[in-house]
Amino acid sequence: MVILTQKLPIWLVLVFIYLFSTPTFSQNDFLNSTCETAANYTSTFEKNLNTTLSVLPNTNSGLGFFNYSTGQGIDTVNSIALCRGDVNGSECQSCLNDSIVKARQDCPNQMEATVYDKRCLLKYSNQTILGKYQPKPYHFVVEDDQFSSDKDRFNITVKPLLDDLIAKAAAGDSLLKFATGNKTGSDYTTIYGLVQCTPDIISRQCIDCLIDIIYQFSINFWSSRTVGGITLLPTCNFRFETYPFFYERPPPGMRCIILLGLYG
């Protein structure tokens, strides 16, 4: 039996739960994690990081956006988390808890970490995050077995759908910038799309971010006739598929709509 004699930070409690019980983190939902900047990692920064990750899950805006900061100077820890706009509150909270565990496992001594899941994203850094458009690095996810026999016809369907979704997401407010939809092409193939920005960035930044990641995906993958995929940045993401992957309407019992990270 493990006996705890002092109060532990919430992220460490989550690690214990993760290790000594059945994990809830799904490898099918986890997409990627990145770590940066190991220099100047001090005990003060670690203390601030523990505090930040303990408080962050309690800062939900009501629509799945979280942010919290602790400390000063180089030991400051800034953090954000974003749940996909169609997942319910319990799934959002579960994804964030799992992502905190994943970040601490994958980036134990780094001052910056980003975790992407199909349902949410988590980022912390000693640099400013809130309200800042982060254009790189891009993260692409493509299923190898999804290809179209008619690339041009497929792209004629995808582009108008994504253009429409970009406009809808960018028109959102400071709580939610998210849109989903579908469009059926002349070959009767239905394309499903999802776009989302962190709600702390302004409308113009959201539009620029989504246009950029869609363009980056197109030059890297559409020439190969790919008919589904995901592109991720800390400030925006998009996904399209030939099958439904998002909730058409709020799941039962959901108090409010909530997001990547990214994807179902």
Provide structural commentary.
This protein is of the alpha+beta class and 264 residues long. It has two domains: 10-125, 2-Layer Sandwich (Killer Toxin P4, Chain A), CATH 3.30.430; 139-241, Gnk2 domain, C-X8-C-X2-C motif (Killer Toxin P4, Chain A, 2-Layer Sandwich), CATH 3.30.430. The chain contains five helices and ten strands. The protein has helices spanning 10-20, 43-55, 89-106, 151-170, 203-221, and strands at 30-36, 65-70, 77-83, 112-117, 120-125, 139-141, 177-184, 190-197, 229-232, 236-241. The strands form two sheets. Strands 1-4-5-3-2 form a five-stranded antiparallel β-sheet, with helices on one face. It has a five-stranded antiparallel β-sheet with strand order 6-9-10-8-7, with helices on one face. The two termini are 37 Å apart.
Question: What brief labels describe this structure?
Answer:
alpha+beta, Killer Toxin P4, Chain A, 2 domains, five-stranded antiparallel β-sheet, 5 helices, disordered C terminus, repeat, Gnk2-like domain-containing protein, GNK2, signal
